[in-house]
Design brief:
The chain is an alpha/beta fold and 282 residues long. The chain contains eleven helices and eight strands. An eight-stranded parallel β-sheet has the order 1-2-3-4-5-6-7-8. The longest helix has 17 residues. It is globular, with a radius of gyration of 18 Å.
Length: 282
């Protein structure tokens, strides 16, 4: 069942995965956010990737209306934390003192097999933290969807978002049964991304949230206009155009898609509504 959209005057978009704390935005973060506001983005979820990044995310949330934090340790960064018990204790203390809307970005990455046992330990430990604090999770699942699902069945949490989903229909259904939404972004703008496009078209609209993963996963038009050999920087301002591509693929009006995907994000990240109100008032 679709949600009614109260935002008639303009479209409202929610970016459910954006790393404004990344070094790529160090020089112009404020301008990047204002460009996103001008494009119609009214809410943004900022996941941390490391303990050090938690503080940077918190600082940005204090400065940016509409920004909400998720705190966690990304599988790429588990090798940098030092003693594991102390790192998890520090994250626990941070979550107690700085309540987020989700625990994340956490998960597993199948392209980094050299630290797989450590990834698994941190993933399961952070799922336990999410359960302890009654929070959803923001998941990194690249090349590891079945392993992530095994962890979720072992340690049940209150749902969340499977970021940058690129699995099978059966794997998608498994996430949905566990209370998750599936994140789609720049990858669906590429004509060659056939599996991602098929999923984004065939899944129930209520299952989908939109994201940029900025500064990563740039949409096709940034690749086309960038310099040869240069990695283009993605930004949250690209989200409405990504949404428009998805609306066209699904053969539906962009207004309905914007409202429903935003409602989906609010449903899984319940306190995000407070941030949206702040953004609308500025």
């Amino acid at each position: 069942m679709y949600f009614a959209c109260p935002y008639i005057m303009w479209l409202m978009w929610l970016d459910t995965h954006c790393h404004l704390s990344a070094p790529e935005f160090a020089g112009d973060c404020d301008a990047v956010w204002h460009a996103a506001l001008d494009a119609g983005v009214r809410g943004i979820l900022l996941p941390s990737v490391s303990l050090r990044d938690c503080g940077q995310v918190a600082r940005l949330v204090g400065q940016i209306p509409g920004a909400m934090p998720a705190y966690g340790i990304h599988p790429f960064f588990v090798t940098e934390v030092g003693e594991e018990g102390a790192a998890l204790a520090a994250l626990t203390e941070w979550l107690e003192k700085n309540p987020p809307v989700a625990v994340g970005e956490i998960g597993l990455d199948g392209t980094k097999k050299e630290n797989w046992p450590q990834q698994e330990r941190f993933f399961l430990a952070q799922l336990k933290l999410a359960r302890k604090f009654d929070l959803p999770v923001v998941l990194h699942v690249r090349g590891a969807i079945d392993a992530v699902l095994r962890g979720l069945r072992q340690i049940r949490v209150k749902g969340g978002i499977a970021h940058a989903f690129n699995g099978s229909r059966e794997q998608a259904e498994a996430f949905l049964k566990l209370g998750f939404k599936l994140g789609f972004g720049g990858s669906l703008t590429y004509p060659g991304s056939r599996r991602i496009r098929a999923l984004a078209v065939d899944l129930p609209l209520e299952a989908i949230v939109l994201e940029t993963d900025a500064p990563d996963i740039p949409p096709v038009w940034l690749r086309q206009t960038g310099q040869a050999g240069e990695k283009p920087r993605n930004t949250p301002a690209e989200l409405p155009r990504i949404g428009k591509v998805l609306a066209e693929l699904r053969g539906m009006d962009v207004e309905t898609l914007a409202c429903q995907t935003s409602a989906n994000a609010r449903a899984v990240l319940r306190v995000l509504q407070a941030a949206i109100g702040l953004a609308d008032s500025n």
